[in-house]
Specification:
The protein has 473 residues and is α+β, with helices and mostly antiparallel strands. It is built from 18 helices and 19 strands. The structure holds flavin-adenine dinucleotide (FAD). The site of flavin-adenine dinucleotide has 37 residues, from strand 3, helix 5 and strand 10.
Length: 473
């Protein structure tokens, strides 16, 4: 428990809106969307300015009080949940109220905004200036700028625009000693020694609290073509990806795959969804091309390409969205994959990446290993084939006991992660480590890298006040 004396000190340094000890208000901050974690804390701080954050962190550093930063609380690995692992009481520091400044510079193709703005709000502001913020993920209505930077979020357009790291130009953050680090330039080039902002990206709140950032914008894609494509195998999907890149690389903005079993779960559980193509096909691809050039005949070009693929036996069936609402229907099927799986009982999650060309081989080996270990378990992998990133989720057998199945979490993780590493892959492609995967990180990341990470943490946060339960065991 954070003591009354400390709570009193926070009331004295902040306005009353910024402090809460009300358990009813604190409760939603203590669990995530998947309900896998249940945290605890008796103090929620909700500062609205970088100066307030600085005051809070200085005080916490002086008194060795642990802080867990939280943005939109859409992370899926327990990184923003207080009281999970650390032996110390933890304060929740929500950055959602840091939301006073947002500005687009249209000729600089940049946006500078406070950490509490959501991804959807960044896009709305960019659109007002005929610009586009190209990060897109199903949680974009809730996840915040501070959160996407701290997790280096990916999403569905990484194949074209890269991850959050590729979009960042500058960061303002409060370091663990309470000092304000301000590097909010929008420079595209700056080689002046160590680049501290790169350390804060993906640090999951362990090296400081991000309060503001400047990000790249791109031209609005007002000429978009979206196709739903049925294929026999992941191998064929990979071939298609490779050939589409040859002809369309600068316009390819999404290349997602989904298995029939996953689509069937969506159709069964998610209201307002409907099959796009007749019949059953083992895999589906959602392919999107986009450009700002209205004169490029993207749709015709894609139609011709798909006809070639059908002739070559690579594609079983395909359709191009004829309207905005048809495009939205395709995306709804893709975006509902996680939600639909919630209705099918226990699901053991993985967020892995392997070299793109190795995805089909990875799938064969992982599926075989899982079926040997747990014969009726149902691997339902889907995701960003364009980036080699799969959400390799394993659903419980129908009618199995959920708790018994979920008891296999650790063993299944080990099986899947060992195979991933044998392919030179990553055990966390986009969601981060949080508290969920820190055991696996320490088991699988080379000792030299862990030691270097610890040295950085020790140098910046010697009192270990910033998210002490995350990342390291
Ligand atoms: P939170 O969940 O609040 O926090 C995440 C981590 O960042 C925690 O460790 C926290 O301590 C730290 N943190 C938060 N704010 C700050 C700050 N201001 N300063 C320092 N540290 C901070 N992720 C993807 O990458 N790609 C996807 O496609 C994707 N799809 C998703 C779909 C759904 C339905 C859901 C629920 C989640 C999805 N996610 C995805 C995961 C999640 O949305 C991202 O990780 C997102 O970046 C988290 O942002 P947030 O503001 O909610 O952060």
């Amino acid at each position: 428990m954070i003591s009354e004396a400390h709570i009193h000190a926070f009331y004295a340094m902040l306005d009353s809106k910024s402090v809460s000890t009300d358990q009813e208000e604190i409760e939603p901050h203590l669990h995530e969307w998947r309900d896998k974690f249940k945290g605890s804390s008796n103090l929620l701080l909700k500062p609205s300015s970088v100066q307030d954050v600085s005051r809070i962190v200085k005080y916490c550093n002086e008194h060795s009080l642990a802080i867990v930063p939280q943005g939109g609380n859409t992370g899926l690995v327990g990184g923003g949940i207080a009281g999970l692992e650390s032996k110390r009481a933890e304060i929740i520091l929500s950055t959602k109220r840091i939301k006073n400044h947002i500005a687009v510079d249209d000729r600089d193709y940049s946006i500078t905004a406070d950490a509490g703005y959501t991804v959807a709000e960044l896009e709305t502001e960019a659109t007002r200036f005929s610009r586009h913020f190209p990060l897109s993920l199903a949680s974009e209505g809730s996840c915040t700028l501070g959160g996407i930077i701290s997790t280096n979020a990916g999403g569905v357009h990484v194949v074209r625009y890269g991850t959050t790291r590729d979009l960042i130009l500058g960061i303002e953050a409060v370091l663990p000693n309470g000092e304000i680090f301000s590097d909010l330039s929008t420079l595209r080039k700056d080689n002046t020694g160590y680049d501290l902002k790169q350390l804060l990206i993906g640090a999951e709140g362990t090296l400081g609290i991000i309060t503001k950032a400047s990000m790249k914008l791109v031209p609005v894609e007002n000429n978009i073509t979206t196709a739903w494509i049925a294929v026999q195998s992941a191998e064929n999907a990979l071939d298609i990806l490779s050939r589409v890149k040859e002809g369309f690389s600068e316009t390819l903005s999404a290349f997602e795959i989904m298995p029939l079993s996953g689509i069937n779960m969506v159709l069964e559980h998610i209201e307002g969804t409907r099959p796009v193509l007749e019949g059953n096909h083992p895999w589906y691809i959602l392919l999107e091309l986009g450009t700002s050039s209205e004169n490029t005949p993207l749709q015709t070009m894609l139609e011709n390409k798909l006809a070639d693929f059908i002739d070559a036996g690579l594609v079983e069936d395909a359709v191009i969205a004829k309207s905005i609402s048809e495009r939205a229907d395709f995306w709804k099927l893709r975006e509902s994959m996680s939600e639909a799986q919630k209705h099918e009982g226990g699901s053991i999650k993985h967020d892995i990446s392997v070299p793109v060309a190795k995805v089909p081989e990875f799938l064969n080996i992982a599926n075989e290993a899982i079926s040997k270990h747990f014969p009726d378990a149902r691997p339902t992998p889907f995701g960003h084939l364009g980036d080699g990133n799969l959400h390799y989720n394993i659903m419980q057998p129908k009618d199995a006991d959920k708790a018994t199945f979920l008891g296999e979490w650790q063993r299944m993780n080990e099986i899947v992660h060992d195979i991933t590493v044998s392919f030179g892959g990553s055990i966390s492609a986009e969601h981060g480590i949080g508290t969920l995967k820190k055991g696996e990180l320490s088991r699988l990341k080379p000792a030299t890298e862990i030691a270097a990470m610890r040295a950085i943490k020790q140098a910046l946060d010697p009192n270990n006040i910033m998210n002490p339960g995350a990342l390291f065991i």
